[in-house]
Each structure stands twice: as structure tokens, then as C-alpha cells.
Amino acid sequence: MTQTQGDNPHAEPVPRDLSRRRWWSWLGGLVLLSVIVANHAEYHFRCQRLQAAGGPVVAVRQEGGVLAGHNTIGIDEARAAAGGFLRFSTLAEWEYDPKTPSPCPPDVQARSGRDVACMGFMYPLEPGAAIKTFFLLRTTQTCCYGPRPQYNQYLLVEMKAPVKFERLRPVLVRGRFVADPQPDQGFIYRLEGQSCTRAGDDEPDANPAASARKAGLTLFQFAWLAAAGGTDGKTVPPDLAAVDGKRVVVSGYFLDRTEGTSPRILIGKDWWDGVSKGVRPTSATALAAYVRAVGDVPPLWKDRGIMTGVLRVEPDPGRWAETGIVSLRDAVRGVPGVLDARVRLDGGPFLEVWHEALLLAAFMFLVLRPRRRTVASSETP
Fold first, then answer.
1. Number of Cβ atoms within 10 Å of the Cβ of 201
2. What pLDDT score does 93 carry?
3. What is the set of domains in the chain, with CATH numbers?
4. What DSSP character marks residue 317?
5. Using one digit for the tens of pLDDT, what is the confidence trace for 41-87?
6. What is the DSSP letter of 76?
7. Closest to 157 in 3D by CA, of 119, 183, 128
């Protein structure tokens, strides 16, 4: 059966399934457009709420393509605030060579002499817990064994007063930026620092034992795991059996993070860099924590902290090598009611650009793919 367009007797008949297909295409397009608009609108208002809460808002990502033996994190400048924010991508425009100096690019020169804000990681140029002079870099790749950065990859920061040195936590430095090439002194950019603010923490520094007592919870002891390992994997120690199924507080090093639909964190008794330095974790020195939500995953720069959750003991010693002796379920950062999570992170939109592009490509494929048209047969008189 066919339907005609308008009242024109010469119009070609349009199959009903084709008309229905066009209707669903329009509806699907509107739904997809609504999802994309809502995704960006939610992210816009979320950024406004984070900025209104005070403190720097920063997105930190795991860096790829680094030297073996180094776990590097860096500032994701694609999500940095606009306005007076100075980006390292702008600094990189000046490919300075001391042998054949080139003029300063207009974008960089336009910011020279102005007050700016720059987010990065500290590389100390003097000893001590409080320092006045340091390099500010976008990533943590430059360390004891890392490669030497190029002149356009860092700022020399000179603070008026000493500030606390942060090893892995990003800091927001505000001050007067100057393009001042002095390669013999090791820099071409400097920042006359006025203030230095560290990024939000997942919990304030506190005594885990005191926090657990205040909350009326048990503080987990890694010695219990060592005792289980000492039984040759045959029995569950009484101390572990007593806290099975109960909420406990765990304090240790964050050794590994696995994100996704079921985020998991490996919490250990000893520090380990994930490759070769430190003490490699075992089932007798570490446990897996399955967090309640993605927002409870500690920031990448946070290498130690406190988490609270329900302790589950694996009753079958034969599975300890595979699943671990214990695990922490429904875990959250800090101690609820005592040390609440206070981190202010910009996690970006729920749908990244490549997600939106993939959805759009799938939609266009479904709409534009060729279909076999069925020609209605007519009876011969």
C-alpha cells in the first residue's frame, strides 16, 4: 500500500515504511541533539558550582608515552578555566634556542607583565618543607630520573614568602608573568608569585586511629593480613573473622586505581610506584577497595589516605591468591561524619567529545544506510 504526497496526481508514491523511517530519523536526531546539549549544559553548571565552592578546579590525567619506570600525571589544560589562566600550551609556542634566539610570539608577549594564574606541579630549587623558589611544570615527568624539560615547558616561580612544597599535588600560582629569556640562568619565563594554593584534598590530615574512635569504627590493622599469611593459607585469623562484614577504617597507600563501572583501588601497607620502586604488594600486605561511586576514587596525586567501607573476608583460603584475603566493599573516602571528602575536581562532561562523535556516526549510519525498497505489486486486469 502506498500514500501520495499532497494532492498532486503526478507525485511519486512514497512507501509507508519509508515515511515511517523518516519520522523515526527526525525523532532520533532530536533525541541525540537533546542528549548532547544536556551533556554540555550540565557540565557548564557543574563548573559554575565548583568555582563558587572556592579553591582551584583542576582536571588531572594519567600521561601516556612516558619513560618506562615512571607513572606520570599531568594537568589537562583542555578543561582549565579561561580568563587570566596561563596555559603551558601557550608557553610552548616559543621554541627558544639559545644559539639562535627567536623573537617572543605575540600570544606570549601579550601576557608578559600581566597578572596571571597557572596550574602545575612544583619542582623545588631549594631544600626544605617550605620554599620560595621552584619550577612550575605541567606534568610530574621531570623527577630524579626524568628527562630535562625544554625552556618552554616550565616557569621559574619566585614567591614573596615561603610556601609548603607539594610533591605530587598540583598547585595554583598567581602572580606577575614575565617573558624574560635568561638561558644562562636556566629559564626564559618567570612568575613573580603572589599566592600559591594547593588543589583540593580528599581529606584533611588527621590521625586515622582518632578518627576511627570518634566514628565508633574499628581501625583495620595490616598485621591481621600478615597473620593470615603466616598460617600457610589454611585458616582465617580470629582478628579478621571478628571484623568480617563490619564497617572499618583503612589507612594506607593508594597503589593502583582501576576506573570504570566498578572502580577499584588497591590499598597497601607499604609504598610502591607501580613499576619497580618500593615494596611490591601481596595478598598479605594489601587489599582491594571497591568504591561506592566514581567520585570516591582518590585524586591521582594522592598517594596515601583514609577510606571507610565494609570488610569482607574470603572464607576459602584456596582463593586467597586469586581474590586476596580481604576486600573493602561500598568504600568511601575519609570517615563519614568525621573526615568528609572535600575534593573539587573537574572530571569533564559525562560524555567526552569522542563519545558524542561515536553516537553521531552511529546515528548517521543508521539514517543513511541503503535499504532495499519493496515495490508494491499491482494486479493485472
1. 20
2. 93
3. 2-50+353-368 (no CATH), 61-198 (2.40.50.870), 208-333 (2.40.50.140)
4. G
5. 876 776 666 555 444 455 666 665 444 345 567 777 665 544 467 88
6. -
7. 119
